[in-house]
Specification:
The protein is an alpha/beta fold. It folds into three domains: 92 residues, Orthogonal Bundle (Arc Repressor Mutant, subunit A); 111 residues, 3-Layer(aba) Sandwich (D-Maltodextrin-Binding Protein, domain 2); 102 residues, 3-Layer(aba) Sandwich (D-Maltodextrin-Binding Protein, domain 2), CATH 3.40.190. It contains twelve helices and nine strands. The strands form two sheets. Strands 1, 2, 3, 4, 7, 8 and 9 form a seven-stranded mixed sheet that branches. The radius of gyration is 30 Å and the shape is elongated.
């Protein structure tokens, strides 16, 4: 009885290519001519493959090379495997030129998702020598507050985009994205909508505040804007926080560009508070191992040095809130 190991050894690229050539040319004789072999040797190779797999691959009652159902399945799967082998070989060759096999991006929830997807689209549109796209697989993580730092520091991400403070580690390099302004908002039917401004801490504390849960697991989670004794509704993302604000479930601060269209349309009311104008500089950060970054990381760092790109990441919230 043929062992599984023997069957795997029989399914070589050469055997799969032989099946493809026979099916494509329509006969053993034509396939033998194309492959530079004598027909008897090709027939023997097919019989060996059939014996090892314990299946009949070709219908012997026909003068032509007619595949059985098992042979057809092997042909389809064999062609797929040959394509995958070619793809792997191409990826290996490209990665050998300095492209990382995978690059993980940790993006803070406060950034514009549309601009992030624009960058990913531009990355995949790059064409290397030979015409193919970069071989690096991208992985996107959306994090909140300290969770963005944690993904980078723990090695779960290669670059963190949208961290609110400068580096907490000498092994991390940072650069500024730009300023991000926050707006304290309530729904038009919320009790604070008609309250005189600026709102005092005592006024705000009387009402439920909506917060977004910090995604950090190891670092100390950050809590922003919650006053002592205040009722809190914690939601998983800024998109759900905006929905909570629109429904009047509470009050809270969100990136101003994210809600500008709701404020302009009257669906939210922006209120000044005792804190004055809230704004902070957002940064991007990456690990520095003392060596030049891989080509994929270098591509992203080059794009993030562009002021227009940074502005889009901070402000281009229209249309896509995930």
């Amino acid at each position: 009885m043929t062992s599984p190991q023997d069957k795997r050894r029989a399914l070589t690229p050469e055997a799969l290519a032989m099946m493809d050539t026979i099916a494509r040319t329509g006969s053993f004789a034509a396939a033998a001519r194309e492959m530079g072999r004598v027909p008897s040797a090709l027939t023997y190779s097919v019989r060996q493959l059939e014996d090892t797999l314990d299946v009949l691959l070709f219908d012997r009652s026909s003068r032509q090379a007619v595949l059985t159902s098992a042979g057809q399945e092997l042909l389809v799967e064999g062609r797929r495997l040959l394509q995958e082998l070619d793809a792997v070989a191409n990826r290996v060759r490209r990665i050998a030129t300095g492209w990382e096999s995978e690059l993980t991006l940790a993006v803070d929830d406060a950034l514009a998702r549309r601009a992030v997807f624009d960058l990913m689209e531009a990355f995949y549109a790059e064409r290397l020598e030979g015409g193919g796209p970069p071989p690096t697989r991208l992985k996107l993580r959306v994090e909140v507050l300290a969770g963005t730092w944690e993904a980078l520091l723990s090695g779960q991400a290669d670059i963190a985009i949208g961290v609110p403070t400068r580096t907490p580690s000498p092994a991390i390099q940072t650069a500024a994205l730009g300023p991000l302004e926050f707006a304290f908002c309530v729904a038009p039917h919320h009790p604070l909508a008609e309250a005189p401004e600026p709102l005092t801490a005592a006024q705000i504390a009387e009402h439920r505040i909506i917060t977004v849960a910090d995604s950090a697991r190891q670092l100390q989670p950050m809590t922003i804007g919650v006053l002592p004794g205040q009722d809190v509704l914690t939601l998983p993302s800024l998109a759900t926080k905006v929905e909570g604000l629109l429904r009047g479930l509470g009050c809270g601060s969100v990136p101003a560009p994210m809600v500008s269209r709701h404020i302009e349309a009257g669906r939210l009311v922006r209120k000044s508070t005792y804190e004055g104008l809230r704004a902070g500089t957002m940064h991007y950060a990456w690990r520095d191992n003392g060596q030049a970054p891989g080509k994929a990381l270098a591509w992203w760092l080059a794009r993030l040095r562009n002021g227009t790109t940074c502005k889009a990441l901070l402000e281009q919230h229209e249309g896509l809130l995930l």
